[in-house]
Amino acid sequence: MCAKATMEEFEALLSESLEIDTPNEGSVVRGKVIAIEAGQAIIDVGYKMEGRVDLKEFANPGEAPSIAVGDEVEVYLDRVENARGEAVISREKARREEAWDRLEKAYASEERVEGAIFGRVKGGFTVDLGGAVAFLPGSQVDVRPVRDAGPLMGLKQPFQILKMDRRRGNIVVSRRAILEESRAEQRAEVIGNLSEGQVVDGVVKNITEYGAFVDLGGVDGLLHVTDMAWRRVNHPSEILSIGETVKVQVVKINKDTHRISLGMKQLQNDPWDSVESKFPIGSVHKGRVTNITDYGAFVELEAGVEGLVHVSEMSWTKKNVHPGKIVSTSQEVDVMVLEIDTAKRRVSLGLKQCMRNPWEVFAETHPVGTVIEGEVKNITEFGLFVGLDNDIDGMVHLSDLSWEQRGEDAIQNYRKGDMVKAAVTEVDIEKERISLSIKALDADTFSDAVDGVKRGSVITVTVTAIEDGGIEVEYNGMKSFIRRSDLARDRADQRPERFQVGDHVDVRVVNVDSKTRKLGVSIKAREIAEEKEAVEQYGSSDSGASLGDILGAALKGNKE
């Protein structure tokens, strides 16, 4: 009974001793290198256990392994014993566990960690953080896109942990955050030593369409294209090249955003200071077209001084034409200074003012009455436009097309491209109008026919036709029509058939219309006028004499 108790106590003590002395699988233990053979290190981890680890597990990325017999190292115990009776251990897993503990503390305190980029993967790179592998996104490598990451591979450098998940084994780091932080410190220091108006030397680092970035010794400043020269610069590459050292002036410093604006033209004399004396209003100068827009063209008078020729000042005759069809870029032209605004740095120029007004020239060479010949350029509802010298047009109004036809009918006889002759009737230089007349080339038969004839005149006409509604008569070649009601004073005599073709009849003129070219005549009006005149001369309404007596006396008086 006593012996049995002693045996149980011994087994209990042995079991307790094994639990205390033997490490748990999945833990990190310290061991000693007792031999190196066949590319492996044999490590005694105590507890009468030995294991093997590949030498490569003792090497950092891109480096040779550094391990020797007698070195003490920490390894990860996967299993206490394998099929060969050896412990299954790993230096890499031990480093990983150690690294994760260290990295978690650094992540919590937002401290930097050291690592080396050792591989490229989709979307970025892999980084060894002393045993733990992290992912470095391509966007987090540098402050600017990196085309060649070769120089960065295997180089130990600091990183910032952005995100980590131990359960999933994910770590995301950034090199850019470190660079931006150090860059911000450097920028703050450099900016603190700069002041607006200061002149410094810089190196052109990058060129864009809108300007160039200049390195001022750790901080970049923007040299905008408009601050490179007083003259127009189409692209910064016209003046600068990458790597070139330039002298610039600090124009503005934004302390909040650390942005620096630079200028080169500020180191040169402002040509606008002498614009008014060099280019007085009304003077003519030769310039070069630098830019063409929809509203005009910019002309450089000298380096740094440009003026605008508005589209309305480009040509006397081409009104609705794009400026690009009148001038071309780099063309040399003569311009006149029309207006100067030094405050707004604007000069208004005129191109057409350097040429004579074609309407003035026309008025001098073609006085009223001159006969011209030109091509019908356009036909509108109110007349014809005829092309003249120096790209100007004259207009023939509907009323000036023909003496005989209505304007609406006469215009049908013309087509675009026809050559016509016309007489100049008016030149209005201010309104830029030239009036022409085609009918003025022919005699006005109506005016000639009715010359001296006035309303109330008595003329003799010849009957040319008899109709139911009246008779047609002719006077000096002009036709008129007397209606039935105007053939006589008495209704009984208002009969067209009492006249014959060829009869000569005295009529009274009741209307002379030059516009409609019509002569209105009436027999009835003549008879009434004669009767009135007889009454006034030979009797009155209260004299007791009859109308027959009065007319008889008038006839007798006429015979005597």
TrEMBL record:
S1 motif domain location: 26-92, 110-176, 197-265, 282-352, 369-439, 456-524
Cellular component terms (Gene Ontology): ribosome
PROSITE patterns noted in UniProt: S1
Record key words, sorted: Ribonucleoprotein, Ribosomal protein, RNA-binding
Pfam families: S1
Classification via InterPro entries: Ribos_protein_bS1-like, Ribosomal_bS1, S1_domain
Reported function: Binds mRNA; thus facilitating recognition of the initiation point. It is needed to translate mRNA with a short Shine-Dalgarno (SD) purine-rich sequence.
Protein family per UniProt: Belongs to the bacterial ribosomal protein bS1 family.
PANTHER family: 30S RIBOSOMAL PROTEIN S1, SMALL RIBOSOMAL SUBUNIT PROTEIN BS1C
Name listed for the protein in its UniProt record: 30S ribosomal protein S1
Native source species: Rhodobacter flavimaris
